[in-house]
Amino acid sequence: MNDWLLFDPLFRIPFLVGLLLAAGLSLVGTLLRLRNEWLAALGLAQIAAAGGMVAAFLHGPAWVGAFGTAGIAMVVRSTLPKVGNNHYAIMIILGWSATLLLGAFMDHGRVIGESLLLGQLYFTRRPHLIGAAIWLVLALACFPWLASRALTARFFPDYHAANRQRVWPYRLVLALMTVMAAVFGTISIGAFPSFALLFVPSWVGFVLVDGWARSVVVSVLIGVVAYMIAFVVALLLDLPFGPVCTACLVMTGALRWCTALRRRRGEWAGEEPPTVSV
């Protein structure tokens, strides 16, 4: 047991970086689920990982390559007439294959590829903390505006067109927030743990409570609590953080199952089930 590691100053910055990212990723995940574009998280994360490998191959900073490839992917996506999860699935396949192929031509390529896919939280430093803090502040500042337009587009699809309101600013800001989430998450905690934090909290939170505002709060709490438990367990048991984090998030799915079972029993008893907004 490594109880003393929990109080080691060496892990303070990694813990704070992961905490900020867990809150921010869970928050952005609610918007992606509202738009039914949750697969974008993994698609962009895989593309960002491939960009990080390109940067490493060219002996440059990983974050530059990650931002570049993720940004290009979003620009290409915006030119398509209709975008669905099929396009994000292509991003996942392309990013995964490119990451592994590039790693085959590099010294220690396998180690770099695994660190991008599975996470390197313990090696994050002050620049990662500053970047995560700035991104979270931006996400919190933009969230009310993004959420109001996402809700309108979800429940009143023709509202903006009928009122001749431009939707490209909203889509652009949401795309930037998603790209930043994928890049910061991939570089700091890995592509798959980032996807888990974007996907699972809202998947569970939207079922546990009624109403948009409460669903968002619960989703963020699920992501943050699961992250904190994973960080402690990974340190105490000397396990890799990424797989532990995804496992903790998946286990929160039991809350969704219990809630669904309780509501089903209420229907059998003749009670009126609660309404879930999203």
Structure in a nutshell:
The chain has helices at residues 12-34, 39-57, 62-79, 85-104, 109-118, 126-155, 159-162, 168-189, 191-208, 212-236, 241-251, 253-268.
Explained architecture:
The chain has 278 residues and is mainly alpha-helical. The chain has a single domain, classed as ABC transporter involved in vitamin B12 uptake, BtuC, CATH 1.10.3470.10. Helix content is 78%, strand content 0%. The chain contains twelve helices and no strands. The chain has helices spanning 12-34, 39-57, 62-79, 85-104, 109-118, 126-155, 159-162, 168-189, 191-208, 212-236, 241-251, 253-268. α2 (39-57) runs antiparallel to α5 (109-118). The chain is globular. It starts with 11 loop residues before the first helix and ends in a 10-residue tail after the last helix. Mean pLDDT is 80; it is low at 270-278.
